[in-house]
C-alpha cells in the first residue's frame, strides 16, 4: 500500500529539492538558502534519497531531521529500512552505477545502521497539497516503481501512464513533483505538468559543479543553481575511500555514469 500524507493548502514560495546524496555541504547550503529567502521548513519539500554517492550519510539524515521539512521516502531510504544490500535502483549489472553503488550503499549502511527507522519510520511514500489553486502530488521516481527513472526525453505516453496511476490513488491532480533521476525539468502534458525538482547532491551532468533546486510560486516553478563547497564534499569522499568517479564529478559537473542516461541526454 502506498502511504500518502496530505499537507493541505500551502501559500507563498515553496522550496522543492531532492537527492541530498550524503552530501552534507550541499544540504547545509540549501538549508541556508531557505533561511535567506524566508521560507520556513513547513514550505520546504524533499523528494527523497537522503543518502547516496557522497561521504556523510548520517550527518545528512540528522540535518534533514533537524530541519523538519516535509519529506517522502526515496528508494535509498526504503532499502535502508528493509536492511537491503543495495540501493534498489535496478542498475544494469556491471554498469558504472552498479559498481559504484555497491560501495557507497555499504558505506551509508554502516553509518546509518539500525537508526534508519528512527529517521524514516513514519515517512510517507507520497505527499499531496494544493497551492495557488493547483493540486500537486509528490512522488520519488515513478508511480509503480519508486526507483523508476523518468527523463525529459521520454514520450508523452510515459507521462500519461504515470498520471493515470497516480490519480488512481490521489484523485485529480494538476501536477506531479518528483526527483530521483537527477535531471531537473518541467514537462507539460496536456493540461498537467510533470516537475522534476532536480537533486542537490550531484550536478545535472551539464559541465558545471552547481546543483539544482526549485521554487514553486504563484507564477509556476523556477529552477535555481545551488553553489556550495564542492572541494570539501569531494575531499570527504576521497578520505572515505569513495573514489569511483563521483568525487571527480562533483568538481567537473559531469557524471562518471553516463550509461544510465538515455542517448538524447548524453554529451
UniProtKB/TrEMBL annotation:
Residues 38-216 form the Calcineurin-like phosphoesterase domain. InterPro entries: Calcineurin-like_PHP_lpxH, Metallo-depent_PP-like. Gene3D superfamilies: 3.60.21.10. Belongs to the metallophosphoesterase superfamily. YfcE family. This is Calcineurin-like phosphoesterase family protein. It comes from Litoreibacter meonggei.
Amino acid at each position: 500500500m502506498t502511504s500518502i500524507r496530505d499537507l493541505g493548502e500551502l501559500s507563498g514560495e515553496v522550496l522543492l529539492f531532492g537527492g541530498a546524496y550524503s552530501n552534507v555541504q550541499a544540504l547545509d547550503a540549501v538549508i541556508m538558502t531557505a533561511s535567506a529567502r524566508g521560507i520556513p521548513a513547513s514550505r520546504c519539500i524533499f523528494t527523497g534519497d537522503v543518502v547516496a554517492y557522497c561521504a556523510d550519510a548520517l550527518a545528512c539524515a540528522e540535518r534533514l531531521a533537524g530541519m523538519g521539512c516535509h519529506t517522502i521516502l526515496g528508494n535509498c531510504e526504503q532499502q535502508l529500512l528493509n536492511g537491503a544490500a543495495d540501493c534498489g535502483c535496478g542498475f544494469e549489472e556491471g554498469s558504472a552505477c552498479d559498481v559504484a553503488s555497491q560501495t557507497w550503499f555499504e558505506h551509508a549502511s554502516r553509518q546509518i545502521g539500525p537508526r534508519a527507522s528512527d529517521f524514516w519510520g513514519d515517512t510517507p511514500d507520497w505527499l499531496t497539497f494544493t497551492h495557488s489553486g493547483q493540486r500537486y502530488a509528490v512522488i520519488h521516481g515513478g508511480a509503480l516503481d519508486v526507483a523508476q527513472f523518468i527523463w525529459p526525453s521520454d514520450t508523452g505516453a510515459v507521462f500519461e501512464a504515470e498520471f493515470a496511476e497516480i490519480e488512481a490513488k490521489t484523485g485529480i491532480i494538476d501536477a506531479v513533483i518528483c526527483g530521483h533521476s537527477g535531471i531537473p525539468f518541467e514537462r507539460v502534458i496536456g493540461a498537467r505538468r510533470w516537475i522534476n525538482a532536480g537533486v542537490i547532491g550531484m550536478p545535472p551532468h551539464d559541465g558545471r559543479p552547481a546543483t539544482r533546486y526549485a521554487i514553486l510560486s504563484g507564477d509556476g516553478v523556477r529552477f535555481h543553481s545551488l553553489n556550495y563547497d564542492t572541494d570539501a564534499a569531494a575531499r570527504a569522499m576521497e578520505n572515505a575511500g569513495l573514489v569511483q568517479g563521483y568525487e571527480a564529478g562533483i568538481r567537473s559537473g559531469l557524471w562518471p555514469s553516463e550509461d544510465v542516461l538515455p542517448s538524447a541526454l548524453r554529451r
